[in-house]
Amino acid sequence: MATNANADTGHRSPGAEIGVIGGSGFYSFLDDVTEVRVDTPYGPPSDSLFLGEIGGRKVAFLPRHGRGHHLPPHRINYRANLWALRSVGVRQVLGPCAVGGLRPEYGPGTLLVPDQFVDRTKSRAQTYFDGLPLPSGELPNVVHVSPADPYCPRGRRAALAAARGRLWEPVDGGTLVVVEGPRFSTRAESRWHAAMGWSVVGMTGHPEAMLARELELCYTSLTLVTDLDAGAEAGEGVSHEEVLKVFASNVDRLRDVLFDAVGELPANEERDCLCRNALAGMDPGFALP
Ligand SMILES: [Zn+2]
């Protein structure tokens, strides 16, 4: 565990207040970045945390797939990632990710800030409340946390305002369907997702958002459409190469939006959203990091 872990009310200065889960393209050019290794009861997170400052706000960056992008979506230790961020003081998380568009109008370069997700993953540890003891001996209670509105309303407003400020008109709301991966969808799956009215498809949005909620963290998803999913286009289907190319060509402006969104977020102690009290009235059975 990080030695500078503290609670909302702690007197020691936190290592970070805001977390960004995304690749090195988001922090590599910051002047003063400190690499911090953090361990958790669930094992190590995807990589070190990289702590830096944006406009006076302390931000922890965590490469979701590890530096060098070696972790496929289903192998990411999501529990360790969120736990590690919280343990250094993070209470609000921005989670940019690449997605496929399920409607022709959501083409490459679309920025969509979802307000719902659908879980179609299969094999991931998706809760801290799994009845298994922690290495500390603490036993998590049976706790049911509501994901009815899975994303932080305050964080969503910050992301939308930041995008508009950069003249990148975002799609406000929509449903992110999260598939297991690492394969893309068949045309039949993709058409089904679209027919259900869902907006974009990705591989990492769950359980990331839900685990954040279980730790009373604010979580905001920013999805960047890198391709039209198989059912929404007439060509050969999605290629990994195409995804990387579109992501690379948008990473600079996505970083600008993320940094502006950081500045729009409230101080941690001034959070007034549902996320902060996600466990109100429930005893998790263990101390949050
Ligand atoms: Zn919130």
UniProtKB/TrEMBL annotation:
Gene3D superfamilies: Nucleoside phosphorylase domain. Phosphate binds at S24, R64, H65, T204. InterPro entries: MTAP (IPR010044), Nucleoside_phosphorylase_d (IPR000845), Nucleoside_phosphorylase_sf (IPR035994). Keywords: Glycosyltransferase, Purine salvage, Transferase. The keyword Glycosyltransferase applies. It is an enzyme of class 2 (transferase). CDD domains: MTAP_SsMTAPII_like_MTIP. Pfam families: PNP_UDP_1. HAMAP family: MTAP. Purine nucleoside phosphorylase involved in purine salvage. Homohexamer. Dimer of a homotrimer. This is Purine nucleoside phosphorylase. It comes from Streptomyces sanyensis.
